[in-house]
Amino acid sequence: MKLSIEKVYPFISKEDILKLGKEAKDCNVVVENGSGKGNDFLGWVNLPSSVSAEEIADINAAAEKLRAKCEVIVVIGIGGSYLGAKAVIDALSSSFDLLKTDRKNPVMLYAGQNIGEEYLAELLESLKGKQFGLINISKSGTTTEPAIAFRLLKSVLEGNVGKAEAKERIIAVTDAKKGALRKLADQEGYKTFIIPDNVGGRFSVLTPVGLLPIAAAGYDITALLNGASEMEKATASSIEFSENKSEIYAATRNALYRSGKKIEILVNFHPKLHYFGEWWKQLFGESEGKEHKGIFPAAVDFTTDLHSMGQWIQEGERTIFETVISVEKPNKSVVIPTDEANLDGLNFLAGKGVDQVNKMAELGTQIAHVDGGVPNLKISIERINEFNLGQLIYFFERACGISGYMLKVNPFDQPGVEAYKKNMFALLEKPGYEAETKAIKERL
Ligand code: PA5
To answer: Is 307 an annotated catalytic residue?
Structure first.
């Protein structure tokens, strides 16, 4: 993985970034030695290098058992209990996976990431006559969205195959001791995996939260962890600032923020990375957006969104910078054919791979955006595979911890997420919320 920051120099100087280098380094030390805010949630820091071969084997065995029985696997979870797995599985799967008939891998579907009645009704309709299994993920074990989805899907599964067989097709990933899901899983006798206490949701993709669905989808979690592990070493605080990509990224984005760039756009030119952007948005948004501070994380898919957001990015308020994830080589190739009539005037592209055109769009966009006042950072990976995704995941997690401390917030809590839940429970008259129900009704 490479990180290039030269295209921010027209806006902030190398010295501006170097000045923050010491701060980034100090914050990285704080991440490492656990002396900062939220230090009881630093279990992710050494996770890649500490996952044991037994744990990986246990996850692969459970995934294999589910794959043998199920043509469809529904992953139930929301936020950090969903986005990492979805990001990696989408990045590695065929874009038209659902249409594949010669499948080796189960169809992966998702539930519990919304409270859409039609979504759930349509999911239940699509599962009719299908052999399916469930991976139910919730650290707290009490989150409403996945709990509703699990209640519905469990009852359909038990109706289809009976309670005893359903038990073989349900795996729960949750806390070791606490929460409704732990109680339910123990009582029903489901196979379970534990989310470590000291790993928060958005930093949990390299625990069974992400690893189990990724393995169930047929991908290589050892390679994913190897990539992450390599990045764990490469971003340790002992690595000099000039070589430490997470520190450089954290320092650069904070220097830009302090110069008035309040919005960061994560850009991909590869449609399979759409959910990687969603995962990244949660990682940085939930970690940094607090105490009325924080870079607003947005994500776009180019060239698609150049035809929608492109205008704003090129000429809107100059408060943005962009970080592009660039993939050097596609895993599959398509060459543009010659057409004798050339009615579309495209023969100048004949013989070129589609990716060559995409690369020129990428370079052309970078030049246009920098000319238009948008600082540009570029992260390049050779190709999309498990190893490189593992590197990217850890690189961003480490940078997020450092950057959050540079902003002087606790990067590992999310107190703001509770506000809507409290109101929703009051409005739904949940037992225990009587005072809140009375108060909110008076405001309506
Ligand atoms: O990052 C986080 O902590 C959150 O996004 C959680 O992952 C999300 O709210 C789901 O929580 P839980 O796993 O407890 O159901």
So the answer is: yes
Q: How far apart, in whole angstroms, are the C-alpha atoms of residue 304 and residue 17?
A: 32
Instruction: Give the pLDDT of residue 202.
Output: 97
Could you give the CA distance from residue 230 to residue 386 in angstroms, rounded to a whole number?
A: 13
DSSP label of 300: E
Nearest to 165 by CA among 61, 70, 77, 76: 70
pLDDT at position 102 is: 84
Helix ranges (H only) for 189-341 are 208-216, 221-234, 245-258, 274-288, 310-315
Which residue's alpha carbon is at the smallest distance from atom 9 of ligand 1? 79
Query: What angle, 0 to 180 degrees and rounded to 10, lies between the N-to-C axes of helices 14-33 and 386-406?
Result: 100
Residue 421 is among the residues annotated as catalytic for this protein: yes
Give the model's pLDDT for residue 158. Answer: 98
Which pLDDT does position 134 carry in this prediction?
Answer: 98
CA of 201 to the centre of ligand 1 (A): 5
Describe the strand order of the beta sheet including 296-301 as a list of residue ranges.
Answer: 2-4, 376-381, 320-327, 263-268, 296-301
Task: Pick the residue whose CA is nearest to atom 15 on ligand 1.
Answer: 138
Q: At what angle do helices 221-234 and 208-216 cross, to 10 degrees?
A: 140
Q: Cβ neighbours of residue 50 under 8 Å, at least 6 residues apart? A: none
Q: 319 preceded by cis ω (within 30°)?
A: no
* Spatial contact of 267 and 377, defined as CB atoms under 8 Å apart: no
Token pair listed for 335: 């060459």
pLDDT for the residue numbered 124: 98
* N- to C-terminal Cα separation, the chain: 53
Asked whether 286 lines ligand 1 (CB < 6 A), one says: yes
Paired tokens of 424: 């929703």
Distance 224 CA to ligand 1 centre (A): 22
Is 326:314 a contact under the CB 8 Å cutoff?
Answer: no
pLDDT reported for residue 149: 98
Q: Which two tokens stand for residue 405?
A: 């401390």
Which residue ranges in the chain fall short of pLDDT 50? Answer: none
Q: Which amino acid is at 173?
A: V
State the pLDDT at residue 103: 87
